[in-house]
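Example 3.2
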Amino acid sequence: MVHTPPQGTPRAVAEHPALRTGSKLKRAPARVLLVDDQKNMRTTTALVLQSEGYEVVEAESGEVALSRLLDEPFDVVLTDLKMTPLDGLAVLRGAIEISAQTQVIVMTAYGTVESAVAAMKLGACDYLPKPFQDSELLVRVQRALERRRLEVDNSLLRDEFRARYKLDALVGRSEKMRELLAKLVRAAATDVTVLISGESGTGKELIARAIHANSRRATQPFVPINCAAIAETLLESELFGHEKGAFTGAVRARRGLLAEASGGTFFFDEIGETSPSFQAKLLRVIQEHEVRPVGGNSAINVDVRVVAATNQDLRRLIAEKKFREDLFYRLNVVPLTTPPLRDRREDIPLLAQHFVEKFNAREKTRRTLTQGALTKLAGYDFPGNVRELENVVEQASALAHADAIAAEDVYLESLEQAPRVSRTLEQAVEEAEARAIESSLARNHGSLERTAADLAVSETTLWRRMKKLGVHRG
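Structure, written as C-alpha cells:
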C-alpha cells in the first residue's frame, strides 16, 4: 500500500442516516470495521481513515470481525480477501446477513477478475486491489457511505422495515417522519432516557410504544401514565406504592406501578404537568433506580427505562421555576420531536387512507376517498394534528352519502368560519381539542365512556379536559 496525501479530499465525517435530524445536531462519525490479518496493514489503513474523521474498529481475523458485527453496528466493512480460516468472502456473507445495509468493500493483493466478480456477486459494494493510494481508499469509502445512506432512506419507506420495527401505526413518508423513525430505531436499541416533545395529537405515545417494542425490554411491561390525569396527592402513591395505614383509606400495602413495570419501560405522558416536589422524587428514581413507598422506611430497587413526553416548552417552565432543570437534563438524553401535521402535509393522504381502512375494518364497510376529498384534507392546517384528522375522516366515513367519500362529505369547521384572528399556539390547540371532543360526544350521544374510548383517553382525562375547555355533554 502506497500512502499519498489525498488532494482536495473533504473531511469525511459521514452523516449517519439514523441520526440525521437537522443541522442543529452534531453528526455522528461513520463507523468502519477494518478486517485484515496483517497488523501493519491494519495500522496504516486505520490511520488514514481516522485522519479523515472516521471511527475505526480493527479486527485481526474473520472470526473477530463476525463477533464485532454481531455486537455493534457498522456503516462500512473493509475486509481483506485472503485470510484463514475465515476469508473475506465469509466476512462479506456474514456482514450482509447481520445487516443488509452495511456496505462491504473487499481488498486483496490478489486482484484477479475472478475474485472481484465473486465478491460483487455476493453483494460487495466495491473492490479495492492492493496496493492502493490513500485518496483511492477514501473515495471508495465515501462512495459506500453514500450508497448506504440511500439504502437506509429507501428502507424507511418499505413495508418490511415498518413491520420489522413494529412501526405500522406510525404512518408517513415525509422527510420529517423518516428522520424521526431513523433516530427512534437507533435510540430504541439503547437504554437511555428519551424525551418526546410535540403538539397535542401528534402521536407521542405511539412513538414511546415503538421505542419499547424495539428495545431489549420488549417482552417486559410497557406502563404508561398520564401525569395530568391523576391528582397530585394520588400520583406518588400510584407510582411508588404505599404501606398499610400510610394514609386514610390505605387498608393494605400496595406495590406501585414503577415496581410493577420493573424490567420494562415506563412512559410519563404530560410530564410538564407535575409539581417540582414530585419531580425531585422522580429524579431520584432515575438516578438511584429505587423507590420508597409512601409511609415506608426502606427503598425498593426498580429497573425501568424512562420515556417521557410533553406538549409544553420545558425550557420555559424551567425559567418560570415550574420544572426542575436537573430532571430536564436527565430526561433529555435523546430528544425526539413529533412534527405537527401542517409541517408534513404530504403525509395527510396516507394517513387519511389509513383511517378509512381502519373504519372499514371496524364497520364492515367499503368507503374510499375521492381526489376531491383528499385535496380538501391536504389544504387544511389541522391544529389538532393527527387526532383531529382521524376524527374528521371517521365522521366523513360515517356520514358519506355513498361509498366514495366526496369533498362535500368532509366537514372542516374552521373553513366555514371567518378568518382567524391572531392567537397563541396553546389557544389554537385547545380550540381544536374542544372541537374534537364535541364531535366525538355528538357521535356517541353524550356517553363519556364511549367518547373516552373514541379519543383513546381515560374518562378522568376526558372529564378534566372538558371542564378546562368548557365543553358540555349537551
